[in-house]
Amino acid sequence: MSNSASGLPASSHEKLPMHVYLERMTLDEKIAQLIQLAVPFFEGASDAGLITGPMASLGISEQTVHNAGSVLGMAGAQETINVQRKHLENNRLGIPLLMMADIVHGFKTIFPVPLAIGCSWNLELAELSAEIAAKEASVSGVHVTYAPMVDLVRDPRWGRVMESTGEDPYLNSLFARAFVRGFQGSDLAGDQDRVAACVKHFAAYGAAEAGRDYNTVDISPRQLREFYLPAYKAALDEGCEMVMTAFNTVDGIPATGNEPLMRKLLRDEWGFDGILISDWGAVKELIAHGIAADESEAALKAIRAGVDIEMMTACYTHHLNELISNGEVSESLIDESVLRILQLKDKLGLFENPYRAADPVREQEIVFSDAHRASALELAHKSCVLLKNDGILPLKPSQRIAVIGPFARSGDLLGPWSWTGSQDAIIRLSEAIRGKLINPAVMTVADGCGIDTATEEQWSEAATAAQEADVIVLALGEDSDMSGEAGCRADIRLPQVQLELIRRVQELGKPIVAVLFNGRPLDLHGVFEESNAVLEAWFPGSEGGLAVADLLFGDANPSGRLTMSFPFSVGQVPVYYNAFNTGRPQGAADAQVRYVSQYLDIPNEPLLPFGFGLSYASFEYADAALSSDTMTPEQTLSVTVRVTNTGAVAGVETVQLYVRDVSGEVVRPVKELKGFRQIELQPGESREVAFELTEEQLRYYHSDLSHSSDAGAFVAFVGASSRDNASLPFRLVK
Q1: Where does the record place the Fibronectin type III-like domain (predicted)?
Q2: Of 1, 446, 651, 703, whose CA is between 20 and 30 Å from 517?
């Protein structure tokens, strides 16, 4: 075979069965397959040889590079072809490289960040976003993406909440499956428009103490299984090819060297036989964690834990040979890992065509195409969440609008993990709003301040811009470096200069619409009460400016619903809907005034709860009912409710079903999401929404880690959010 774009032969080596490659490899060649290096190490790359900083200290020989198994951070059809061609010339057995990259929420066509995608509650569009990302990445030479991240998140101080889909294990599991289906399709071997997925970060990275990246995680085995593991398991059940280790500890052992977690749970109990890869530098970090005295012990513990690929450290390269020689490591462990790597390369068809789908001509046709951008626009429409509206929205094309704020003219709408996207190719919010107006000439624009700095000139410019406006749109938020990996913040309010901008603009007495661009739930003090409307846009992606303008003017109706609670104050954090009740809950019928579980200075409840979101339509719930007040293991229970659009425009409502186990063997959350339905209703239209509730959905992990349900009292809740719902008691009878 040959690659149609390059005209290069696929390989000068005849393809052999994978076990034959393994048999013919020297030990050094095997060990080299287990290392993953960045692009500058490889001949043929545009920045080949630019090995500086920590990369220069790895001590990697040229021969090791020639035998390396994979490269990270590479994209671009011609570049990947060039590197693969040179690699095959240098590799004795003609074993191709795996090209891996972080394609998290889009390749060139950038979709909203995953937390925003979660707020769409739209699994079909989530899957489509991953399918499009895979198609663009694959034609650009990528074979594997480090996605989806399915870590359950409860602490918005942690920057990487933007990369998750929220605080609920059930919903996260559904999105995990959808993303894996989108990336991999149903025939990874035959469909070259797909890429292999790598679920991350195993395990419980989202529970990092104090919301600080790379920090300690300490949760019980039962909590781990109940809340944090389900989404990883869902991704693997969907066929996800790879797993990435987490940076954090799990039960006192860093995940990358955690043999009980990786060998006993992931490999033995769950039966995962795909590739396990470390995160960047995580093998060597076992030394800093304090479970390895040196690189040799780090290599020993990682390979025993089952880590197949070491990313960007050289502990395996420098020490596995010696560890095998002295009998501390069996060569069979190396063979297991190498065979898994070879098998994925074989599944991707790289031995027959090492360039796979990389095609510079087709790349120009596919990447950032109009069809892909249209899908990004649709998902951005559905991901934004309307948090407040006193009637000022939607705006009217005849109004005089002032667009003020650091995001008024900013291209920073893509968010973290959008390294292949282009800010230059997107329409800014002020441009998109101008396109909606009957008389664009009367619109004014001003920055007002920077993200976290301001000048008197900027204040003055904002005041002038607002002077003649009917409505002020304040475009506020965090820049993309303030969230994502290593983007943790102790103070999750808007920067002080932006709060000052709101205060100064409010003194003008004009209606204010706040549009927020950010990667985490914020403490909205200084924004929420001071604004007539608040639209949470997140980082909405390539088409974000257009999407927000459509929503502000009613050309699209907001339908997003929060999948992570917005705290009243950072002092509540972590605050989440599926919490335990405590023995002295606030508000109980027999509760005392003081001696209950509460704060003296703020409410217990978040400002905005899980599942919350407004629309330009209004929805009325009625006639909530159960088919029976008892359930048995053999008989399902039907939960029904009638929803009516009582507004003047069509809208999409997300009807949500929750359950509480009133009396369990261990304490149970006050509510747990068990199902949802999205329905579109015309003005005046009513529809009955039905859910089927089964005994299996009532099971949970007991103190002995068995998974079963308990007979007894339960309550079903059906409604518009985790806060706004009707309660329906029933009993499970066994």
Answers
A1: 653-722
A2: 651
CA distance 493 to 711: 45
Residue pair 43/11 in contact (Cβ under 8 Å)? The answer is no
Domains and CATH numbers, the chain: 380-553 (3.40.50.1700), 617-732 (2.60.40.10)
pLDDT per residue over 80-106, tens digit each? 999 999 999 999 999 999 999 999 999
Residue 454, CA atoms < 13 Å, CB-side half-sphere? 22
Distance from C-alpha of 514 to C-alpha of 11, rounded to nearest angstrom:
57
13: region left, alpha or beta (phi > 0 left; psi from -120 to 50 alpha): beta
Using alpha carbons only, what angle is made at residue 553 by residues 547 and 559, rounded to the nearest 5 degrees? 60
Dihedral sign for Cα atoms in the order 110, 193, 68, 6: negative
- Cα–Cα distance list, 612 to 130, 170, 511, 654 (Å): 25, 17, 24, 10
Lowest mean pLDDT among 5-9, 123-127, 544-548, 648-652: 5-9
| Residue 389 phi, psi dihedral angles, 5° rounding | -160, 115
Specify the pLDDT at position 55: 65
In order of 184, 258, 336, 475, the CA distances from 28 in angstroms are 32, 25, 15, 56
Q: Nearest CA to 254 among 313, 214, 225, 222?
A: 214
User: How far out from the chain centre does Cα 169 lie?
Assistant: 13
Tell me the CA distances in angstroms from 633 to 170, 327, 630, 676, 681, one per residue in order: 21, 53, 10, 22, 35
CB 82 within 8 A of CB 44: yes
Task: Round to whole Å and give the CA distance between 239 and 254.
Answer: 26
Q: What integer is the mean pLDDT of 476-481?
A: 98
Q: Which of 292, 384, 308 is nearest to 340 (CA)?
A: 308
Per annotation, catalytic residue among 151, 155, 168, 279 = 279
CB–CB of 644/680 below 8 Å?
no
Helix (H, G, I), strand (E, B) or coil at 426: coil
Name the pLDDT band for 49 (thresholds 50, 70, 90).
low
Nearest in space to 152 (alpha carbons), one of 221, 243, 227, 208: 227
Burial (0-12, 13-18, 19+ Cβ within 10 Å), 586: middle
Q: What percent of the chain has pLDDT over 70?
A: 97
Q: How far apart are the first and last CA of the chain?
A: 62
Mean pLDDT calculated for residue range 364-393: 98
pLDDT of 590 over the 80 cut: no
Half-sphere exposure at residue 387, Cβ-oriented, CA atoms within 13 angstroms: 28
Q: Does residue 394 have a cis bond before it (omega within 30 degrees)?
A: yes
What confidence tens digit (pLDDT) does each residue in 603-615 have?
999 999 999 999 9
